[in-house]
Design brief:
The structure holds 3 protein chains of 3 kinds. Chain A folds into 2 domains: about 230 residues, no CATH class; about 100 residues, abc type-2 transporter like domain (abc type-2 transporter like fold). Chain A is built from 14 helices and 5 strands. Chain A has a 4-stranded mixed beta sheet with strand order 2-1-3-4, sandwiched between helices. Chain B is α/β, with parallel strands linked by helices. Chain B has 2 domains: about 230 residues, no CATH class; about 100 residues, abc type-2 transporter like domain (abc type-2 transporter like fold). Chain B is built from 14 helices and 5 strands. In chain B, helix 3 links the parallel strand 1 and strand 2. Chain C is α/β, with parallel strands linked by helices. Helices cover about 35% and strands about 25% of the residues of chain C. Chain C has 9 helices and 10 strands. The termini of chain C are far apart. Classes of the chains: A alpha/beta, B alpha/beta, C alpha/beta. The interface between A and B is large, with 108 and 113 residues.
Amino acid sequence: MKQFLAFVRKEIYHIMRDVRTIMILLGIPVIQIILFGFAISTEVRNAEIAIYDPSNDAATRRIAEQIETSSYFNIVKYISSPKEIDQLFKKGEVSIVLVFADRFREKMLHTGKGEIQIIADASDPNNATSLTNYLRGIIGVYQQELMKEQKVPYQITSEVKLLYNPQMKGAYNFVPGVLGMILMLICAMMTSIAVVREKEMGTMEVLLVSPMKPLLIIIAKAVPYFLLSCINLTTVLLLSVFVLDVPVAGSLFWLITVSLVFIFVSLSLGLLVSTITESQMIAMLISGMVFMLPVVLLSGMMFPVENMPDFLQWISLAIPARWYIAAVKDIMIKGLGFEGIVKELVILSGMIVFLLAVSLKKFKSRLE
Amino acid sequence: MLKYLIEKEFKQILRNPILPRLILVFPLMALLILPLAANYEIKNINLCVVDNDQSPYSRKLVEKIRSSGYFVITKTAKTYDKGLEAIEYDDADVLIEIPKNFEKELIREGKGKVLISANAVNGMKGGLSSSYLSSIVTDFAGEVRSEWIEAGTGGGVPVIEIMPLNRFNQNLDYHSYMVPAIMVMLLTMICGFLPALNIVSEKEAGTIEQINVTPIRKFTFIISKLIPYWIIGIIVLTIGFGVAAVGYNLLPAGSFGTIYVFAAVYVLAVSGFGLLVSNYSETLQQALFVIFFFVIIFILISGLYTPIKSMPEWAQTLTVINPLRYFIEMMRSVYLKGSGLFDLQKQMIALLIFAGLFNVLAVVSYRKRQ
Amino acid sequence: MKKVIEAENLVKKFGDFTAVDNITFQVNEGEIFGFLGANGAGKTTAMRMLCGLSKPTSGEGRVAGYDIGKEAEKVKANIGYMSQKFSLYNDLKVWENIRLFGGIYGMGSDEIKEKTDELLKRLNFENEKNTMVKSLPLGWKQKLAFSVSIFHNPKIVFLDEPTGGVDPATRRQFWELIYEATDRGITVFVTTHYMDEAEYCDRVSIMVDGRIDALESPMKLRETYDAKNMDEVFYQLARTAKRNGG
């Protein structure tokens, strides 16, 4: 045991010496939380709009005024011909154009129908949809003004409740994702690279002939990364509670438990990779392609899993981070307790058993 | 001299057990799978219906929601609380509750009310699905209105008719928005990561010593490292064009030429950045994490997933020094809007500056002597 | 006699550790100069300064007539170097490594081809021309690395423990190659910790704790220290070392 601790200490010193990597490992979660929490949003603000207003009458001026005063739009240009529209879009100067019919007010009053065209740059479809909807809303307000005197019958109001996240903060979705990614990065990727590096450098052979049990050597290598993960787990949780105002609605105990289980899954994955690969480059690529990418894509961190085609949803079932992220969401955001995460805990524990069994078998056969 | 060095780089890349396959297969896989996964199109939203009225009107409303194409009714619950449970266990994303006497009140008092509750853990999805749902309800009200008030009895209120037109992407197809951007991500990953790992792996292997003791010029050495990635970048891009055309029926509205010209500059910029990282790293692990760190930030604030316009001021300022941003803008503009070099001068200038800056720094920071 | 290497008060510090402590010596054209010392005595650091791989903290040096501080790149054009760690490309074939380094030193394609065949013949390596370097045995790798380092006919070749880890017979073969090189007029600067190899040198210097404590022909050294062989000489000097080897 003493020997083991001495070995762990050596590994920790070794990692601490590489200040740059440590800084990055500790910095990645901070930067990600800040970027995800503040920079990544789909909120519409100050979208650039151009207006084509050939009639320039009281009605069109009123609508333009309302657009200008809304925080959603910023009128950058009044164009003199619809021909200019495409050029503006191609240069990316505006995202949407409002086109009034000529003699707008006159027609509206005489025929009872005013015509407006909204031309959106739909190369970003979601953005185009939101902008169009906001613009409709503003025009709708003007319509209400027109109808002020009349009472409109047969109205149905929708009372909308946004559950769990009334301000529609992206953070609620990203925090669990960032956690999953960081833990995977440190435990699986770093551990596997660290072990394979010793193999590549030939120093592994030296360690293997030492009196320490080979398995203990590998475990000792994993301990510092385990500690690093715990630090990062703490950082992310503190940041999300105090900086992003994402509270831990459920039980902190179960949140930490499920995180520890996930850390062990990742460590076992790292162990498996390190037993089957011989070069750092391959270990990196496997960790990158097989672990990191699916975590980002298929875990529901960036994109909703239920939008994906079935075969991807099937694949996602095999991805530990998916279960972890689901469990974290259940606890942190929905406030569920143990009963809410039983399934996830069981699946993740099963993964640990399976991964350890496979990698131990591989490891033994390699030594013989 | 350069000839021999480039020859060597190519032989090494081709002999690597994984790199050539990676360069060919990764773009293929990524482009076939990523756009399927990276889909923010809000369709097939799981809906739970709590219909306490069970009247012809309430059924009509439910039918209207169903036929809209956005919602799939996965659950009908007896009470609101039971509906909430469905949301809690992810059996439904949104729930709509139609109160008792909905029809009666609508006809007698001309007023109705429904309750919509959406799971907003994913804020964007929650927001969009509830707004789709409430706009369907509003439409429904309009239909009821026109049913009861025959044409003309509206009372002379002028109506503004809005005709939306979606330029460049009429069907609001999310793939044509994401696929070009994913090509950019691929180029960035392959032409950023590989050079970052290159010089440092020569350091680890010790071969850099034998090079450093020759009179080779720093500039020549860096160029010999750049050119292979430059060619690889063009290959990856070409594969990307192929997959986009065959898999997604997506051809640029503008010209391939414009994209190639931009790519030539862009790959130089990211590869130069990779080499710069490699120069400053002592171990592969270090290089990997440094480049990983930067690429993640570059990608997150590039406008790839969320519009730059939606970012706070400080983040928008940061995007100015992000080469990815300009390349993605270019890619989407050329693919969807048919923009040409003339429209994209700003982006070109920015990329040229990055390419120049990173590569000068890469040459300067390459140390032949400690 | 013409001096091809002149070091004057060369010092190299890493932080507050002085790896090379004020060394001064000269190497004559055409001689085999042995650079001896225990592990960690500073041999490799001193050699790396002379090769232009490491900047001296202070002091001056000239190699092949060029200043190692200001004209490092000119120095590099006139020397060959074989590092302690095998540093040819493992994933290139034998001929490809030769071609690469020939090319870097500015040789033409035809010249390289011709000289490659000649070299491989001399080494009895003809069958290994297309062998991937990583699958060569260590002794062969070392011979190849040496041949590559003098392929461009440098004035001086620096060898850093060139024969580490191989058996005495292979080492002797290696030294035959060194003698061939001196016959071609190449000055050889070699570090080693095999004392039998020291006997093959025209002159040897012995480094202890970053300083040169002795510099003579092996015969003279044996006389001075009243020793049977170089081993004893070395032992007497190394005993005074304060730095721990390794």
